[in-house]
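I am going through a labmate's work and have reached the protein record below. What it holds is a sequence and that sequence's fold in token form. Please read both lines and tell me whether the tokens look consistent with the sequence. Do not assume that whoever made the record got everything right. Thanks in advance; the entry in question is below.
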Amino acid sequence: MRLQMLGIGAVAAAASAMVLFGSATAAAAPDVVGQPYSDAVDAIEQGGGTAVVAARVGDKLDQGDCVVVNAWDSSFLRISESRSQVSLALNCAGEYATATNPGASVASPLGREAKSKAEEEAAEEEQQALEEVSTPDE
């Protein structure tokens, strides 16, 4: 009988603590790695969370253009904040490293993808410029 009373008391204490302190919602950080910070914030807020910059490297880009290189759930609960917080690590040095600009190594997946995208955009711009060139009439 005494063990049953202790068990009931423990359950009541746990329920009281949840009412008093609230219960945190368990949510995993969304997959925003590789996205610009501004897009990552939108995705996190749509999921009901709050984005927090935990680390930042570089100063070449505006914060909204910085690339998210890591995202994780914050390991604490703020009493004044009912939404879950997602910590972000940002690369603001540039999308990929060159001889004159810092950024993600082209040996990394993020760097390779960024360089390929930049090369494709440069090729499209060159093609458009060639199409706009007109030859003089004879």
